[in-house]
Amino acid sequence: MSAGRSGEGLYLNAAGQSVLGSYSHMPMLGWGLVLETTEEEALAEMRAVLWRLVGVAALIVLVAIALSLLLVRSVLRTLGGDPQYAAEVVHRVAEGDLTGTLNLRAGDSNSLLASIARMQDSLRRMLGEVSQYSEQVAAAATELSQVNEETEAGMQHQNTQINSAAAAMNEMTATVEEVARNTQSTADSAAGVSGEADTGRAELADTVAAIELLANDIENAASQVSALREDSERIDTVLQVIENIAEQTNLLALNAAIEAARAGESGRGFAVVADEVRSLASRTKDSTGEIQSTIEKLQQGALRAEKAMNGSRQAAGSTVARIGTTAEALERIAAGVSSIDEMTQQIASAAEEQTATAREINQNIHVINDVAQQTVQSVAQSTEAGENLAQLAEQLRALVLQFRI
Who has the most CB within 10 Å: 148, 241, 290, 317? Predict the structure, then answer.
């Protein structure tokens, strides 16, 4: 305190007594304040409070022990046995083990262990029955699935056969209808062929006359073409003469140009004329060559035309002979067409009756096909339901196998 500090603690005072004191320095007054009491006086009241607390605590402990004993007795009576044993039993049942036998007190029927024992017996019986029923359901579902699969396979085969029959009937119906149409068309055509044959014979006679006239015209044209070829040969001879004259004129013009060049200035005009003459002679020679080439082509064409006309004249004679043969064939065709007309009429009537019958059969097959399709769908649904039932039975059996009974 003389150092200007404050504090409290247990210490010895000036008289050498153990005291509990508190001191504080007052700098404004320059004083120091000290409060002291002996250790015995300070701790006497604390000891009294402590003993009272100890008594109360002991009383609380005794009451708690009594309550705990009552609670334990009530719990044991409710559990029906030791809590650890009850926990083991509950754990064993929770794990699916229903094989054990519970140790119960004599006359105990309301405790937790007694209820667990009854529940264990009930579960054991129910799980046994469920296991038996699940096996029966699984076997029945498997058998049902097999039957459905066999039925579905049979229905699929039947459906395939029905589809094949329907397709065959469709084709047959189309064929019969086509036969009916073709037969009727044939009958109509046959009815007109006889008249056409008569008309054809008359036209053949006209054709023979026209071909003979054409043969005469071709022969006259061949004569004219032959004369044209001879005239072109004479023209070719004249062109050769003109070509020779042009070559000589070209030589003369060349010589004249040379002489004009020698004459100098006085022969310049003559040189120009000589050049023009030479150019004209050259163009005449070129034109003569082109005309000669054209004449040669004309001669070749005339020769080919003459050969073609001779061939056409021969072909016309052959055609006249063949037309005579064709006229005889038309006579035979007309007779055959009359017979065909009668037979096609009979075939057309029979084809119409067969078409009506085929359409009716086709409609019945389509009805059967629709019913078969519905049956296949129903069997497929039944198969799926059987498979689902088998899966559920197997899952139920797996759940039952988790318990040991």
Answer: 148
Whichever domain contains 348, its CATH number is 1.10.287.950
Number of domains, the chain: 1
Residue 261 CA neighbour count, 13 Å, CB half: 8
Which of the two residues, 80 and 251, has the higher pLDDT score? 251
What is residue 299's predicted lDDT score, i.e. its pLDDT? 65
Confidence tier at 236 by pLDDT (50, 70, 90): low
Q: How far is residue 84's CA from residue 402's CA, in Å, rounded to a whole number? A: 24
User: What is the pLDDT at residue 76?
Assistant: 58
CB within 8 Å of 361: residues ≥ 6 apart: 169
Which pLDDT score, from 0 to 100, does residue 1 have?
Answer: 47
Answer whether residue 379 is part of any domain. no
Which pLDDT score, from 0 to 100, does residue 56 have?
A: 83
Which residues, at least 6 apart from 111, have a Cβ–Cβ distance to it below 8 Å?
A: 77, 78, 79, 80, 81, 104, 105
Asked whether residue 73 is domain-assigned, the answer is no
Tell me the pLDDT tens digit for each residue of 325-352.
776 776 777 777 777 777 777 777 777 7
Length of the chain: 405
In SS3 terms, 158-194 reads as HHHHHHHHHHHHHHHHHHHHHHHHHHHHHHHHHHHHH
The residue segments making up the domain with residue 185 are 177-366
Q: What is the 3-state secondary structure (H, E, C) of 53-106?
A: HHHHHHHHHHHHHHHHHHHHHHHHHHHCCCHHHHHHHHHHHHCCECCCCCCCCC
Q: Which of 220, 231, 189, 163 has the alpha carbon at shortest distance from 340?
A: 189
Greater confidence (138 vs 29) lies with: 138
Element (H, E) at 254: helix 112-263
Q: Could you report how far apart the first and last alpha carbons of the chain are, in Å?
A: 88
Residue 194 lies in a domain: yes
